[in-house]
Structure formats: structure tokens, C-alpha cells
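#struct-pred

JT: dropping the chains for the assembly here, can someone run the whole complex?
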Amino acid sequence: MTQSPCPGSGELLHDYFAGLLPREEEDRVEAHVFECDRCGAAYERAGALASALRQCLPPAISRARLEALTDHGFPVRTVRIPPERAVDAEFTTGAPNWLFALAVEPGSAERLDLELIGPNGDPLIEYAAAPFDSTRGELLILCQRHYIDAFGGGEVTYRVYAVEGEVRRPVGDYVVNHVLGP
Amino acid sequence: MSAAGLVASTVRAGAANSSRGGLYCHPMTAAQLAPEDDAALVAAVAGGGEAASQAERAFCERWRGRVFRYAAHHLRDGQLAADVAHETLVAVLAAMREGRVERADCLGSFVLSTCRHLVWEENRREGRRRRAAEAVAAASAVEAMLQDTGPSAASVDGAQLAGCIGHLASRERSVVLLTYVEDWPAARIAETLQTSPGNVRVIRHRALRRLLQCLDGAGDAPQAPSGRRVAP
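RK: done, full complex below.
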């Protein structure tokens, strides 16, 4: 049996699982990975990664993603936080996940970046282009208990930046005291 | 053992070994077939006896991952994909047992076409279900969405992946999350990040390469270009 040539890189498989290939090329990829064991293994690996990524729940999510979750019964309790305010959020086993709705006035910003700063002032993580609900003026933070393992609880500052062209300016700090309950 | 029972037991065994991240769970014993020799697999299954039993297990272990990934890609539902993957393996096993696989050297094509047909059937059924407007809101729906329960999905640990995502550069992380979590097209990501769709593709591939390396535990986790420490 004549095999079609191997694509030579994993990028084609990543594009496949991201749904970016035209139908004819998808068919070619599928026909090949079902006849080539090496590429078949790479296909499985790339598919597993794409699938796992789709199920990620990062801290900053869009309203649409949130509604897709809550429509399927994902439990959340929401607190709206104005800028320069601090709130307490207790995380207990079995309780709904916390959704922090950060009230943001982005002005003419082209995008919003989000930085998480830990209890000791250490930067924890940064997200460029955090999804923003412009209708309600909110940047949504979905906080699950396992995220707290990264910093052990305590006060986290969510710092929002507005980016316009080359200029990046802070538009608000929102402080949440993560309290670990039973 | 029935074809369905064999497939089920192979999948269960695979799931039990998921911590190893391996695709193959049963080492082949002596006088066995080389897994890649599909023509020999087909012949052994059709021949019956102990060799057939081993060949059938080898068949399931060899193809279940690819079949599941194909189904998952086209159905976008882990539970449905697992069901269709199961049906596919059962159907092909039955065809092998009954001597209906005409081109034994093209077993991969046979598996693919069987799976393709079953996926198509499932999509038709799903369309009918949606038109009937049956509401499904239950914990199982959340499970299917939040936990891919397919036979190969466990090879990527969610907590480990979250840690690896944390080690990406900010733009890489954003491209990956906006692509896969928020389903943004490349053009929109490009506009938001003030770059080109071509560069978004480059960033995405670089990020995915780094994620795979991180998941494989290859070397130190990459630092963000700014040098700032990022949380696991």
C-alpha cells in the first residue's frame, strides 16, 4: 500500500485540531494518520492537547463562555467589585465557584490586560487581551479553589491595564482576600 | 469474548493505565504479531483461536486513540466521541471476525471510513435531537464538558496543563486561551494583540510546542520574556 508522505511537522496537526484547515486538507490529514503510526501517535497527542485546552477554565473568561458553563449547571456565585475596593471570598469544599465581576471603565482602550499580584506583591501571572464584557463594563474572573494553591490564599490584587496603541496604563486595582475554608 | 466486551475491557484497561500516559496497556506476549502489520492482524482475527484473541486486543489498543481523537474532533463532545469510538472498534472487529475486510493492507482506511460513517450518523441523530428541543441539563452534561472521559484524554493532565500554561509568555498564553477557550478567530486575536494573523499562527504553534515540552517534562519550564516569575 502506498502511503501519503508525512507532513513533516506538528503544525499541520495543531491547525487541524484548531479547526483551521479546509475540508480537503482535513481529509488528507485524516487519511494519512490512519495509515501512518508515527503520525497517528502525533495526531493523538495533538488532539489530547487541544481537547484539554478547550476544557481549561482560566481566571479571565468571556461572558459567552461563562454562560455556556452556567447553562450546563456549572455553579457560580458572583460578586461585583468596583475599582480600588477589597472584598473577602471564602473558598469551601462543595461551594459554588467564585466569579469576580471587576467593574471597569475602559475608555477608548483597544484591549485590557490583566495582571495578578500575590499577597507579597509578587507578580503571579499576566494575561494580555483579557476577555471583556463591554455591555456590562465587566472583566470576569472565575476563581476556583485549586488556583489558590499557587499562592496559598490571602490577598490577590487584580490589576487591569487599558492598552491603546503603544500606551498601557493601569485603570484599576481590585483586591480579593482569598480565604480557605473547610 | 464478544467484540463489544473486548473493546470495553481494552478501553477500561487503558483508562486504568492512564497515569502512565501510555497508549498501549497490554504488552504483547510471545508468538505475537507485530502491531503495525495490519494484514497479519486481520488474518489472525479471521483465523480464530488464541492468536485471534491477542490480535483483537492489539487491534483495539492500536486504533482506539486515533479513532477517539477523530470522533472528538468532529463531534466536539467527549462522551459522544467515546461512544462512537467504541462502536467503531466493535464494528471493525466484527467485520474482521466475519472476513469482511477485503483489503487487509488498508485496514487503516477501513477503520477511518467506519468511524467517519458513525460520526455522520451521530451528527444526524444529534440534529434530530436538537429539533425535538429536548432539554438536557444535568451533572452528566457538566461532566462531559469539563472532563473529557475518552480513552486518550487522560494523557494530558489538566492540573499539569494549567501549570504549563502559567509558564508561557503572556502573549503566547493569550493566543492559546483565546483560540481554544474563547474560540476567537485568528483575525480577531491579531487585531486585539496588534499583530498579524500569520504571527498569531506562529505564536500559537510556538506556545503549543512549549506546552508539549512542558507536559513531557523536557528541561526547565520556560520563563516569560520579561523574566518575571509566573505562578504554576
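JT: nice. The mean pLDDT of chain A is 89. Chain A touches chain B through 59 residues (CB under 8 Å).
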